[in-house]
Specification:
367 residues; alpha/beta; 14 helices; flat
Length: 367
Amino acid sequence: MEAGIVGLPNVGKSTLFNALTKAGALAANYPFATIEPNVGVVPIPDARLEIIRRHIESQKIIPAMLRLVDIAGIVKGASEGAGLGNKFLSHIREVDAILQVVRCFTKAPGGEDITHVEGTVDPIRDIETINTELVLADLETVSGALGKAERAAKSGEKEQVARYEVLKKLAPVLDTGKPARSVKFDDPEQAKALKGMSLITSKRVLFVMNVDEDDVNGEGPMARLVRDYAAKEHAECVPVCAKIESELAELSDEDRMELLKSMGMEEPALNRLARAAYKLLGLQSFYTAGPKEIRAWTVPIGATAPQAAGVIHTDFERGFIRAEIYSVADLEKYKNEKAIKDAGRMRIEGKDYIMHDADVCHFLFNV
């Protein structure tokens, strides 16, 4: 699962991406890897890992990781190939969710003006520019596929019928400028067909408000406009000052904490952004803990115990017998696994168990 960072030119998109990846590289005990240019893997800050380590001695901690893609900047006309439109659209189709960086700052780090592609700073106009290009790209895809889908549906095969019904419902909605995600598909076959189309506007969106240094909490007039817009779209938004985050990423732990304190911040805003992106992707963490490592593993919300075991190793899923599970809250309350068992809080779960966020697991398997 991965999220793509998108935005107009000069909104701070790449600055945020670089700050995220640098923060991941510098954080103690946080493994980091750059997979290819403009693609990075960053850790998900998780206080529960330290709670576990307080009660289970271990050599190291490994957090859950999030894959981020810094996608080529979009300009008006991208859906028709303007700028790097074709590259932008091909990359954004491959990600699972979108982090849309919106400019809510007025000055550059040195105090000078940064030229906006439209000449003025207007976050809602910027959002709608990108949304329009994405909708137009999807409309072209849907319109081009409708005729073939209609002919294929005449076969009566349920997959082909479902695909045609989805396309038929989406075409008029996209034509009015609304995204594909605004259409609800309760029929399982149609929902499956929609997922297989990889439409850009069916992806979930998180608005990242790149704010001025004196508005780190995103309470200024421009940020408020974005908050109101996101609320109407049933979307989340996170305020981030790219300049501050870039500085924090370059500092030692001690200096970082001092700068955060001076600005009235408890943690880097990028921590909140990483957690929000994790949630946006519909992901949750479970843990394994032992003397060698305490590790957070990532599964989609709704995953079963065997599927979770398979994230560790495919053999674990294939030979799954049962899982011994307790919560981080249980560990914090009872202090160790023996006390958890004595209190009757250690659960034995089978193949139908649906994983909960913050489960700590021992998997039993046979291969």
